[in-house]
Write a structure and sequence with these properties.
Distance between the termini: 122 Å
Order of helices and strands: HHHEEEHEEEE
Number of helices: 4
Strand content: 15-25%
Oligomer: single chain
Largest sheet: 4 strands, antiparallel
Shape: elongated
Radius of gyration: 35 Å
Mean pLDDT: 74
Helix content: 10-25%
Structural class: alpha+beta
Low-confidence stretches: 113-131
Length: about 190
């Protein structure tokens, strides 16, 4: 009998085993190793663009900025620690059109030199919804005023019957007289 394996021929049982062994070696050799977790850890970067900073602001601050500057392009926003509360400093690309704003976390405009709302005429008392003399009003009254008449130019504020504020606007046709209770409730008429 002639030994066929000696002559280079293989038996039918050895061929599948050989192919499987070669395939296993190739698969094991091609398998990528996982890099160390510490070397691929993603380090979060601080938010640096003005748009992303704006998106992270409290809603009341966003409303005040929009009411004061309209669509003016924001250059930068910084949170500044204050004595009583923190506030935001908002600078604009064109400071002649929109000067720097200082806005409290509750949306109250802190700077006296704030511009009127975009497109609005100059204000009579140097105040508009959320700023100047109005910042001395109770917070609930300020919030109601900012929500119901954002950017409206206030002509006069009077306290009537102890806990109700009568607010008269420069343009009564656009913004009729408003009565706001000390707790922020909007009243339909004078008490």
């Amino acid at each position: 009998m002639i030994n066929r394996t000696f002559l280079g021929e293989s038996s039918p049982m050895k061929t599948p085993f050989f192919i499987l062994a070669v395939a296993a070696i190739l698969v094991a050799g091609c398998r990528a190793t996982k890099p160390e977790a510490a070397s691929t850890a993603i380090v979060p970067q601080p938010t640096s663009s003005a748009g992303s900073k704006y998106a992270l602001l409290p809603r009341a601050v966003q409303h005040t900025i929009t009411a004061q500057a309209g669509a003016a392009e924001i250059k930068d926003i910084n949170k500044v620690p204050g004595e009583d509360q923190d506030y935001y400093e908002i600078t604009f690309r064109d400071s002649a059109v929109a000067p720097t704003l200082y806005v409290a976390e509750d949306g109250t405009l802190l700077n006296e030199s704030a511009p009127s709302a975009a497109g609005a005429p100059g204000d009579l008392l140097g105040t508009n919804a959320g700023g100047g003399v109005l910042s001395t009003l109770p917070n609930p009254v300020q919030r109601t005023l900012q929500l119901t008449a954002p950017g409206a130019v206030v002509a006069e504020v009077r306290r009537i019957q102890g806990n109700v504020y009568e607010i008269t606007f420069q343009d009564p046709a656009l913004h009729p007289k408003m009565y706001i209770a000390e707790d922020g409730r909007l009243l339909k008429e004078a008490p």
